[in-house]
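Changelog-adjacent note: as of this version, every example in the card shows the full chain rather than a window. The one below runs 142 residues end to end.
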Amino acid sequence: MTLKNSKSHINRIKVRYSEVDCQKIVYNSHYLTYYDISLSEMLDSLFDQSRYVSETNNDFHTVGVEMNFKKPAELNDNLEVYTSIKKIGNSSIKFFQEIYKSETNDLLNEAYITWVNTEQTTMKSASLPNEIKEKLNNYLID
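Full-length structure tokens:
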């Protein structure tokens, strides 16, 4: 599946020296950081996350990650992170994300990341408000 030319949020990131390992490629855990930054950017474009947390005492917890490495990113590469939503459940959101190298258009990595809306006192799942679901629908793909 490719997210280019679909309902996706795009975030641009440049690979920094601190993210590269001794093989001169991006260390694997940094891809999760790129995805997390991009998820936050997308949600910030839809609603005020900090206000949502303070008013509802709910926040999102990552409960699942499936990541596939295609090609390595290297120092100073310009990356494009595409973020879409695969599924919106009662309390969960399943995101699909891809990272491309801007200069070559090569797909470097793809991931499915699942978040659950969680009430912070009980740490139990909580239903997503309808107004947030409606906003998330802008990025829902088949």
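Structural remarks: Residues 50 and 59 are 9 Å apart (CA to CA).
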